[in-house]
Amino acid sequence: MRADGMGGRRRGGGVVGWRVLLVALGVVALAACAPVRQRPSVAPRPSSPAMIHFHGSAMFSTRMALPPGATLSVSLLQTNARGTRMLAQAGGMPASNSPVPFSFDVPRTLLQPGYDYALSASITDAHGRALWVQATPAPVDRTVADESVTLWLVRAVEPPRPATVVTAPIRRGPAYVVAEGREPQWSARIYGLGATRSMRTSIGHDDPLLQRYARVKRQRLNSGVVVYTTADGFISLTISPGTCRTHGSKKVLAWRAVLETPAASYRGCARGFP
């Protein structure tokens, strides 16, 4: 009787155990069939159906850093057969080097059917003078909620400014870097070292703006490239290694040179010790 009782309890316990196991397996199967929620790697930008988000970069082709205080402005233009008008403008965006990012929103109600729309950008210095402008506005689609645009800028042609007045003494003596080119005739000479470093530039014969002494800062880039930039950021001289021969000369030099101004770039050769 005792043995049967114990055996009965074993059999009862075995039935209960199998039931628990079957229930557990069922729960696991249901969990495997349930959808798995994945966390996105980057949270999407919240969008509003009432707004259109414009973003992208303004590009300009130069290594020369923009002067302190330079800013980017981007305008939304509306055009049709009767003309062009500006609908909105985002300004005051800091600009230092290319590319310059921009981002702004406008109400969708501003963009109506029957018109074409485009973005136009410009970069000005701290005094409001144009440095870079967009020659051709970039078309945009009024039907999208998020528009990414690349804006290509060209140099703005400004009237000559008065020559920079240099109050600190300029070091005299031989220049340790001489860069020059032709078509038109131009030259740039670097004098001094450290805080006393200066540059004498000359382009053509009639432009007093580009015939001057000015303090310059020296920056060494990769691959032996050296850039001299005036304190106001108006002119830069880039010296890079590479064989070079000026027009009409048989002498081969070891450095290439590019003199950049807001109006144009001038290429030539250099000699000395950049």
From TrEMBL:
Pfam families: YscW. PROSITE patterns: PROKAR_LIPOPROTEIN (PS51257). PANTHER family: GLYCOPROTEIN/POLYSACCHARIDE METABOLISM (PTHR38013), GLYCOPROTEIN_POLYSACCHARIDE METABOLISM (PTHR38013:SF1). This is Uncharacterized protein.
